[in-house]
Design goal:
6-stranded mixed sheet; about 40% strand; globular
Amino acid sequence: MGVMLFKWCLPAIMTAVHPFYMSVTEIRYNAPRKSLEISCRIFSDDLENVLKKESKQPLDIIHPKNRPAADSLVAQYIRRHLFLTADGKPVSLKYLGYEISEDATWCYLECTPMAPFRKLDIKNDILYAEHATQSHMVHAIVNGRRQSTKLDNPSSNATFSF
């Protein structure tokens, strides 16, 4: 009876710990620096699990034994799942690093120099292969004007006009 009770309660316990799959990506144009600054907030456990699965290596992104190797895995993953074009031209993103804050991993990227633009297209399918219910909030801030959209798996494309 105890085992049956545990099996019955386990989904409720798992849901209480991590009830949804949501990441947040903020893209900000810094006109004085002529740079595009990107931050992605991803649940650390989800990111770590996908990196372990893809690399087939043990990994602890919160306390990595080899920080440069962990950074490399994160950078490669983000580059395969986040794409930007400005006025139809691909944006070359430079990975700057990541930091842990509570249950999230903040990944930072930038493109510099970056000329002003009028249209920004985004493709973001981070964790889509892992979670059928994965969603992304995407915020774009250009010249003090903020636009936002929500992408729900499988929808991964958004366009912002400024």
